[in-house]
Amino acid sequence: MLPFHDTFATSADGLRLHARGIGPLDAAVLPVLCLPGLTRTAQDFDVIAQALAGDPQTPRRVVAVDYRGRGGSDFDPNPANYTVPMETTDVLALAGASGISRAIWLGTSRGGLISIVIAATRPELVAGIILNDIGPELDIKGLMKIKGYLAPLVTPQTWGEAAHGLQRLFGSVFPALTDNDWMAWAQRAFRQDANGKLIRTYDPALAQTFDGISPETPPTPLWELFDQMVQVPLLSIRGELSDLLSRACVAEMKRRRPDMETCDVPLQGHAPLLADAPTIERIKAFCRKCDGAGGF
């Protein structure tokens, strides 16, 4: 196993931000910049990061970020700042601190939305985008499910309770996960404080970001931004059981971008864990394609 190293940056409003990197700094191929989902952290990418950094033919650098309010980054005293525009500035600060000037962007869920925004506003930074279970238009049923599990919940007292709680929430869309898989998920979703108490790895105030979302007031689709990415190589990954990214949305993305690659992950929902061998190989192949397109 290759070692990870930490990078820190300061946000425009003074928060300490964290990123987790692995792989050779002088790799002769494009780096990969990983952006997690709404409540997720850089550790979600540990498996795919190890696979990319340790590839015997084309080892590459991988950097995964923690937005404000997640993982190793400071929580924001003003929850109104937990927005895609503000988190986009966090990502740019961490990319700069990590010395990344151009990369393949791997965005899970919210991270994919941020990747789309950056491709439209800072295209020189983007050599390719992997959208993990996200698209320009989101299924409101999936959004309301996310809103539901962001509501205040009882904090588990033990690691076993944490793992079982996650299985109750997500077992229907991840039916193939083992007990060890659920425990590993719990250890990414929670951490112990100084007294040994389990706490979530995200600021519970993130729930406020969904206050304005309802079946009557869904988020504005991002098709206009998607259509601006005409020169950006794209790979869309969708969980077979996803309730957030619909097959219809992927079909419309493909209609607008016939060159977009697609990959379905069986027996996984929102969002695929990017830890199975076939998906890892598709990501590796896409990264090599971006290298060959003159992105480096």
UniProtKB/TrEMBL annotation:
InterPro entries the record matches: AB_hydrolase_1 (IPR000073), AB_hydrolase_fold (IPR029058), AB_hydrolase_sf (IPR050266)
Regions annotated as coiled coil: none
UniProt superkingdom: Bacteria
Gene3D superfamilies documented for this protein: alpha/beta hydrolase
GO MF entry, a single one: hydrolase activity
UniProt xrefs under Pfam families: Abhydrolase_6
Domain AB hydrolase-1: 32-274
Record keywords: Hydrolase
SUPFAM superfamilies in the cross-refs: alpha/beta-Hydrolases
Residues spanning the membrane: none
Keyword Hydrolase part of the UniProt annotation: yes
Listed name of the protein: Alpha/beta hydrolase
Organism: Afipia carboxydohydrogena (Pseudomonas carboxydohydrogena)
Lineage, opening ranks: Bacteria, Pseudomonadati, Pseudomonadota, Alphaproteobacteria, Hyphomicrobiales
